[in-house]
Amino acid sequence: MPVVCTNVGDCGLVLDGGRCGELVPPKDAGALVQGIFSVLNHPEVAQNKAQLLKERVESEFSRTGAIEKILNVYRGMGR
User: Fold this and answer.
1) How far, rounded to the nearest angstrom, does the alpha carbon of residue 55 sit from its chain's CA centroid?
2) Any residues with CB less than 8 A from the CB of 35 and at least 6 apart, and which?
3) Could you count the other beta carbons within 10 Å of the beta carbon of residue 67?
4) Does 65 score more than 90 pLDDT?
5) Cβ atoms 20, 11 nearer than 8 A
6) For a FRET experiment, which of 16, 27, 45, 63 has its CA 20 to 30 Å from that of 71?
């Protein structure tokens, strides 16, 4: 699902600076409207970003992704 959100907290990190969704400044209603219109007017781009977000969440923020990161740290300690 395409995402439009304000750049607060870790939203910019999750959306990879806007690569995985529309990221707008906080407290900027006009930018939020533009972000929503961008998704509606460019559905292919929005769908591509949504797919990137899905892949990013699975690899970076899921349980499996977290376990893999931890294992990589342990693997690197033996070097």
Assistant:
1) 9
2) 4, 22, 23, 24
3) 10
4) no
5) no
6) 16
